[in-house]
């Protein structure tokens, strides 16, 4: 007889979101904020995807571990995720690195971030813990992964996906047997092993782990006293379990959430400017690879009370228009043309300007006769009148950061330095 579960496993689980990293490959975008707090998709933050997946999966106990420049992330969580009610046994705790264990050590690694908060996790009274990276874009039902974890009898279940071998150096890479048991695990190897029979692809960790809390608790305490350990899940704990216990791989395709429009399992690490730009621009496609309009799996966030977007002027050469673009609230497109772009909350685009294939973060002002193409513009930037970016790479590189993929990043400091040099 098939075993019957009295309730969803997610009701017995908590989500622990690791959101302390800078994300240095995003360059100046993370000068003022941690990577999980970077804006995405016009109105959300990157961290909203992991949190929304947990909420939509039925998990009502969550914690966010922060460390690097955490103010923006903490403020966002307080404003946008403050609807949990303790009287319903719901919690979202923000856990900054605060020398809780002693006066010398901040979070020394991803595993140490969990270890330093053992007492808080104990207070939740959970049986399972879902450890999540807070810096990826995807939709996933963690309840399915929890069921796989329990049914397989694993000590750790690792979320995984197939990636090109050339990109696998940025991931934990694993081998599995025919039953899905992980037989080897290498964190960010210089020469990643390929999948059997497929020399072009590797099986990579998503940075998602499911543990029985009692098991992980003991393992964390053992690891804390290991002087040779870097106290990291990918470098230390997962390889240890692979070698000495039972680690099982859970394929993303088995629990990826897709609406009727999504043809592939969409997961993106937006850790570089090029990848970040592309993932945002993906949303402007006629049929986007990621459906953010799916009301059965909403991406929750802080929703500001702002007026609708506005388009004004209807003259030849001075027409407020947006084509294949996402325009957030409180934006005014005044005699400007926007194509294949995202304009986040509070954008101001003035007459005779144009924005093509660009991502504008909140409260960007594009003044008259400016032209932007293939750009990422940080929040609060005031684009000077007549500035042209994206048409002359050498000129762009004098003032701004131009990536290998030809995307130009523009920040307030860069604009200020340019203006000072020209004055």
Automatic annotation (TrEMBL):
UniProt site (Could play a key role in the communication between the regulatory and the substrate sites): 67, 106
Listed CDD domains: ADP_Glucose_PP (cd02508), LbH_G1P_AT_C (cd04651)
Residues at which alpha-D-glucose 1-phosphate binds: 107, 172, 187-188, 205
Catalysis performed (reactions): alpha-D-glucose 1-phosphate + ATP + H(+) = ADP-alpha-D-glucose + diphosphate
Record domain Glucose-1-phosphate adenylyltransferase/Bifunctional protein GlmU-like C-terminal hexapeptide: where: 307-410
Superkingdom of origin organism: Bacteria
A GO term, aspect molecular function: nucleotidyltransferase activity
Keywords of this entry: ATP-binding, Carbohydrate metabolism, Glycogen biosynthesis, Glycogen metabolism, Nucleotide-binding, Nucleotidyltransferase, Transferase
Top enzyme class: transferase
Domain Nucleotidyl transferase: from-to ranges: 15-284
Enzyme Commission number(s): 2.7.7.27
Pfam families: Hexapep_GlmU (PF24894), NTP_transferase (PF00483)
InterPro entries attached to this UniProt entry: ADP-Glc_PPase (IPR011831), ADP_Glu_pyroP_CS (IPR005836), GlgC_bac (IPR023049), GlmU/GlgC-like_hexapep (IPR056818), NTP_transferase_dom (IPR005835), Nucleotide-diphossugar_trans (IPR029044), Trimer_LpxA-like_sf (IPR011004)
Pathway: Glycan biosynthesis; glycogen biosynthesis
Stretches that traverse the bilayer: none
SUPFAM superfamilies reported in the protein's UniProt record: Nucleotide-diphospho-sugar transferases, Trimeric LpxA-like enzymes
PROSITE patterns registered for this protein in UniProt: ADP_GLC_PYROPHOSPH_1, ADP_GLC_PYROPHOSPH_2, ADP_GLC_PYROPHOSPH_3
Family: Belongs to the bacterial/plant glucose-1-phosphate adenylyltransferase family.
Function: Involved in the biosynthesis of ADP-glucose, a building block required for the elongation reactions to produce glycogen. Catalyzes the reaction between ATP and alpha-D-glucose 1-phosphate (G1P) to produce pyrophosphate and ADP-Glc.
Complex and partners: Homotetramer.
Name of the protein in its database record: Glucose-1-phosphate adenylyltransferase
Gene source species: Sinisalibacter lacisalsi
Gene: glgC
